[in-house]
Protein 1
Amino acid sequence: MKKFFPIVAFIAVALISLTMAGFAYFATQEAARIKFAATADDALNRIDSRIDLHLSLLRSTHALFEARNGDISRGEFKAFFDALGINDNFAGLRGIGFLRLVRASDEAAVERAILHDYG
């Protein structure tokens, strides 16, 4: 019996070590999964809040047009746009704009107006 004691002790220690290594492996895998899930949730929440912010901008622009029955001048729209504080409140947004519906017979006048306003 004494001659098998070192072998039994070695096998017992090896099994305990393998078990502990397995627990450590699964713990690190679970920690990585939890970290990834938290990062993905954070990214999703940021995207969701950004979309909500841009939708609120569209809703406010729609409300402006509804309040004025669609009759709004370029200067009024620019004043509205400037009052929104786009650089401070809507980071990354380059701008918003609108186009009026034009009859096909009015194309030449609209082209002249665009050339005059925007060069």
Protein 2
Amino acid sequence: MSCTYGSGYDTVTSSLWFSPKQSDSWRDESIPEDLTTDPGYAGRVEYAGEKERGRSSLRITDLREEDSAEYKFIFNTQTSRWGNSFPGTTLTVSDLQVKVTLATEAGKRTLTCSTTCTLTDNPTYIWYKNGHKVKEDTSSLYSDYFSDADSYSCSVKGHEDLQSPAVCQNCWSVTYTHQSICALKESTVNISCSYTYPSYHEIKKAFWFTNWSGMDHEDLSSVPGYQGHIEYLGDKKSDCTLRITDLRLSDSTGYRFRFITSGGKFAGSPVSLTVTDVVLEMDPTSVSERENVTLTCRTKCTLDPITVYSWYKNGQPIPNSNTSSPVYILFSVSSEDTGRYSCAVEGHEDLPSAEETLTVTCQYIGGLDIQFDIVIMLILELRIYCFPCEYISINILVCNIHFPEFVLPQCHHYFK
């Protein structure tokens, strides 16, 4: 929603958008409050505009039916307030519905993609048959010979993710929210699912299965190994969601929902579930000081949504190491980087990868004579310390040994 305004030679000191509908929540019903401070609009309201040109616009995201209201813009100058008495912009939030009517030609029907208000900008309508796009037109009407076994829905171009509920006369369907799912080993996954059938039928049985013996489908809840491992969250109306707990790598397979009614039976296509563990790859695993080491947190499939990765050393989180990338680089390592490394994904920090051990060896330090070069390496409390050594003469080696906690005096090694 946009508006233009002007204050003449008076300076604009502040401005805001508000809705009179929200006045009950204001501290003073006569003093409008900024929409951005209203809890019902938290995180969904944005302002844009050019104050010097007298332009302002209001953007509301994730619209809800309760957002239907009048919206007004006001601005304050050094001497007065303007805009409260002017009419605002009325917003009506609508969803889409498909209505079926008989056409004049025998056997033909007309589908109407309807809304509770007239959409602006002359929208283009998209029609779907059994979930697949079949037609795109500026008209909200779709006339054809429709099969009672098919389902139809519509959307507005640019908002294809907001389809109307599907309608059908005698349709049979099983619809999954995701056709393929990636999940972590030992976690829990819900396979969301809905189904339709003729309204005059009664559900007799509903179940999930993975294998078909050729004679009948075996209910997964009665298969050894799945008892107590799966839970049917659906009902005998339209919801067929399946929950699988404590996932195992062996649970990776295709899952199908099947239901039997008083007048028929139907099975959906498979949902592919891939169960993965988290694997840390370290390259290389043994390095000299000041070299780089690359850690890669791998899974067999792509987790959704995009994952944040956590990195650990000796079982403790590495400070400020969380990344959206599965790759973490240890730059110019020192002996203090020696240790056991692992990784995990956000939300499943209790399911880290197996540990990989990094070994950092002392960098070779040259002396005066190549055949007598020596590096001193001490191991103290499982930490490796490297110290440079310098030849004073052909048979005297001097090493400076420094610890974080204390300093040892110079030590002299004499060759016999």
Protein 3
Amino acid sequence: MLPGRRTASRTTPPPRRDRLNERFNELCAILEPGKPPKADKVDILSDAARLLNQLRAEAQKLKQSNESLQDSIKSLKAEKSELRDEKTRLKAERERLEQMLKGVSAAAAPAPFLPHPAASAPSFHPAAFAQAGKFVLYPTYPPPAAFWQWIPPTSLDTSKDPAHWPPVA
């Protein structure tokens, strides 16, 4: 070698070499934070390649997990819509049954001028007969009711009684 000539390894300009060394130091600090930087560039590159492979494998696992979660979300949404449809169908069925029940109860209701047996006066309640020592022979029959419902309304008007009937002495 000639004394004034540079070798091939020295042809790299110093600023470029310094930048490469800085980048390797940054890469080493990223790969192993808190540890002293390695001087061997081959070790730094092999650690970086190993870490990249680990990250790729982890990313692949996360993608598969994401796909399975998306599939389960789709199936749950489908199930949710099916349940909503069933709920609306059951509501409609309930409404229909309530209307049918109202129709049956309206058809089976007694005449409007007859009171319901449960609405009768307490003195006509079967318990009142049991207290007096009497009982209803047929418990399936309604309790006795007053007959004032069948009296014409003109006879029930007592405002003209003194004119029609003199007072009894």
